[in-house]
Records
---
Amino acid sequence: MAPGRRVHSVTAMSNSTTPKRLAIGLAGAAAINAIVLSPLGDEGFFAIAVIGPIATGIVVGLMRGDTRLAAATWAVTGLFWLVFDWIVNQEDVAFHAVFALAMAGLVALGASLARAARRIVHHAPSARA
């Protein structure tokens, strides 16, 4: 075996973080859908779908969390809305497909804003000068 080549074992696979990440993503998607499908979602769907991903990105960015997982959670939520709306109304498929991608991008935008703010605060001159 070549040096530096990793050996994969069944034991290592059972300790994988993938099931945990999947569970966190599905729990997040369930929470988002619970808000959207509640009476609050009827009144503020657009606000939830635009401000929610940005706020999620900001929180994940400030906590140095997994931005990709948060973006995937919002994208999966958008795809759920696509399927749900297609079954119920048989329309708006393209809108939901584009919006699912846009929500993932908004999570990344929020995380970038948080990282930039953290950098500015970290590198700002001390107020005790």
---
Amino acid sequence: MTQPPSEPVPRDAKTAEPVPRDTKTAEPVPPDAEACAVYLKALGDPWRLKIIKGLQAGPLSVSDLTLLLETEIANVSHHLRVLFHAGLVTTQRDGKFVYYHLNRELFHQAGVQQAFDFGCCRFELPSAHGHAPPANP
């Protein structure tokens, strides 16, 4: 018995890689949706959200964040690595210290309102002082 001819696998025009497909609908997943999923997955941990909140005030080192969050340096390092690989934070070296700050290409501040803009969605953050921004009527 012969197999029916299979449809050609759609490929990305730039990389020639197979186009990712939604596991439920088999529809192609837009590249920006995949990037957005990476960002949101990185933000999906309470420790990482605490780190983001700490970095809202400005750049901090691993040691600074360890003291601020009152946790182990290995815990902070692990979560910073996840945030860095997702592109949510960037680094700047100053001698032997590495300072982490929010990625300015994604993080926007307008008055007291602060948010990550991923292109496919926005992730609004409470102010660095712990007060939520006023609600829009």
